Amino acid sequence: MNDYAAPNLDSLAALLERQALRHGIACVDAAGLDAFVAKGGDVLILLTEDPARSPETWDVAVILPEILKTCGRRLRAAALMPADSREVAARYGITRYPAQLFLRDGGYVGVLEGMLDWDAWGGAVARKLALPVGRAPSIGIPVRGPASDSACH
């Protein structure tokens, strides 16, 4: 019999708490995110999903400290549990988990969605950090005119 239990929400919460203690990755909720971001500078926010639905969430959460080491001390990091992640994702048009949201001084920089090959990660993070602050994409909402039933893109 296999004693290994697949990661679930409880084990994800425990992992994020360990990452906070060992590596200073803040565990925040959607309500506390703005205060965390308001401290300024470059920020990486890990948006998670239930590892039973998105196993990559566990992988990214485990290697997040190594990702942060690739950029020295330039990034402050936080992680959100799935319910809070979905709330924050809606603000930024994020539809795939796990996602790493990059912000600078409260403004949107970019996002990396899903799991990347390790060799690609450092370059992807460096490219995000080199970008200027811009407008966050949003999730499209169909627009209907008064005389039309067709949706606009």
Automatic annotation (TrEMBL):
It comes from the Bacteria. Belongs to the HupG/HyaE family. This is Hydrogenase expression/formation protein. It holds the Pfam family HyaE. CDD domains: HyaE.
